[in-house]
Design goal:
Blueprint (H helix, E strand, L loop, with lengths): L1 H11 L17 H4 L17 H6 L23 H9 L17 H14 L5 H4 L1 H6 L13
Helix pairs in contact: 1-5, 4-5
């Protein structure tokens, strides 16, 4: 919910993608919003994914994280950026935008969080939410770590 609200706030502000004059919209391509995650040739249809597809969970990006990929990391934890690079190489479950194939995907919202952080010039997602949280008078947000 916070991630979607932060994206809509950026759209309302007519915020531009860093280093460009391109305004963020629901139709902005993911590859334009997060150009640095490209680490080789894109999988089929990856470059068709737009912000709207991520918000509506119709991007086709996998919702499961299975398998091993030596190009990511041999040790845990990995960063959200490394996860984004891994996702970039995974086949999509459906053609982006196919409303009949909407699937819950934390991965898609993680990518939206990276967009928020990048556009706010923040080091991480929570810092990227600062503008939204301040308007809601939320002052003590922080990342949590698993107890296990």
């Amino acid at each position: 919910m916070f991630t979607a609200a932060a994206i809509y706030q950026l759209i309302d502000e007519k915020a531009t993608l860093p280093g460009t004059s391109t305004v963020l919209t629901l139709d902005t391509l993911l590859r334009d919003a997060l150009p640095d995650i490209a680490n080789g040739p894109a999988v089929t249809n990856w470059n068709l994914i737009i912000i709207r597809h991520l918000l509506e969970m119709t991007s086709g990006i996998t919702s499961s994280i299975l398998g091993n990929d030596a190009q990511i990391s041999s040790t845990l934890p990995i960063t959200p950026f490394q996860m984004a690079q891994w996702l970039y190489r995974q086949p999509l479950n459906n053609t982006p935008g196919d409303a009949k194939q909407a699937n819950y995907s934390n991965a898609g919202y993680m990518l939206l969080g990276l967009i928020v952080a990048r556009m706010r010039g923040a080091a991480d997602f929570i810092s990227g939410l600062a503008t939204l949280l301040k308007g809601l008078q939320i002052t003590r947000a922080r990342s949590a770590v698993s107890a296990a």
